[in-house]
Amino acid sequence: MTSLTDVYAGGVGTAIDLRRRLLGAALFVLGAGMVVGAIPVATTDLAAELGLGLYGARELAGILAGVGLPAAFVGIFAVLPAGRATRAAAAIGASLAVLGVAMFVVTYPYDWLASAPQLAVATTVVYSLGTLVTFWCLFVGLATFKRRNDPGGTARVEITDQGTVRVISDEDSSLPGFGSVGLFGSGPDGSVETQTNREMSAEHGDATDTATAAEGGNTPVIEEDATILDDDGPETSTPAPGGATPASDGAGGATSDPTEMSKTICNYCSVGCGFRGEREGDAFVGMESWDEHPVNAGNLCSKGAAILETEHSEKRLKRPMIMEDGEWRTLSWARAYERLGDDIK
Question: What does the alpha-carbon distance between residue 256 and residue 269 come to, in Å, rounded to a whole number?
Answer without folding.
Answer: 34
